[in-house]
Description:
With 78 residues, this protein is an alpha+beta fold. It has helices at 12-28, 40-43, 69-77, and strands at 2-7, 32-37, 53-56, 59-63. It contains three helices and four strands; from the N terminus they run E-H-E-H-E-E-H. Strand 3 and strand 4 form a beta hairpin. It is globular, with a radius of gyration of 11 Å.
Amino acid sequence: MKNIKVLGSGCARCNKLETLVRRAVEETGTDAEIEKIEDIREITPYNVMSTPALVIDEEVKVTGTVPSLDELKKLITS
Length: 78
């Protein structure tokens, strides 16, 4: 099972990333646990300089942007 975290303050882009991640997981049939983390104290250890950020299995994959659905599918299945 993959562990996927969406890091962000709850802004529109952060919410969009969470929605796209959930859709990508569903469309790829990936077994994943998705967490939305908005608490800055929980985001800080990942050393991201801008949000939204995407963390898959404790590895930061994306920061400061919202990838396309196809890009997310590739990240999630790789």
